[in-house]
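cron nightly-structures :: item 1 of 1
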Amino acid sequence: MKQFITVIGIAVIVTLIAMTILADQSRSSRLDELEKAVSGAVKQTVKASHAFGQTDIRSDEEMVAHFVNVVSNNIKSDGKISVKVLGIDYKEGLLDVKVSETFKYLNGREKTITVRKCAIYE
């Protein structure tokens, strides 16, 4: 009987450790994905706003729409994405954004990760 209780206890501990590792790995992979997507989208949007002969971006609102479109195409994970524009000037090529993603762990708890990126066309 003692051995049975010991085996059950060890199994519970191993399960808890595995779930903790999976949760941390999930957060890390989502943060990496979000950082890469936002960084690439900011660079692409600022570059597109100053491309020779471009006609897509003619206002700050169109610049934001272009950024959101690129970010949404680059993020494959499921989660709620919110974008806050901190600074923008399409004429000068300035874009400063803060992007947050809210997702759920396997146990149902919600977590929010945030990335802030800024780019200026040179």
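cron nightly-structures :: done
The chain has a mean pLDDT of 89.
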